[in-house]
Amino acid sequence: MGANPFICGVVEGFYGRPWSAAQRGQLFAWMQSWGMNTYLYAPKDDLKHRLLWRELYTESDAAELKTLIRNCRGKGLNFIYAVAPGLDLSCSSRKDIARLRRKASQLLRLGCTHFAITFDDIQPVLSKADSRMFNSLADAQSVVANDFLKHLRDQAPDATLLFCPTHYCERMSGPVRHSDYLKQLGKLLDSSIGIFWTGPEIVSETIPAESIRELQRVLRRKPLLWDNLHANDYDLRRIYLGPYAGRPLELRNEVAGILSNPNCEFEANYIPLRTLAMFAQADGDWDEQQAYQTALKGWLLQWKTHHGRPVSLSELEMLCDCFHLPFKHGPRAESFLEDFQFLVRTLPKSGVAAARWEGTCSEILNLFDKITALKDRGLLYAVYRHIEELKQETVLLQKYLQWLSTGPTPDRIFTSAEHRPGIYRGGLVADLQRLLPMDEEGRFRHHAPPNTQTENDDSRAI
Ligand code: GDL
Question: Which residue's CA is the nearest one to ligand 1's atom 12?
Answer without folding.
Answer: 14
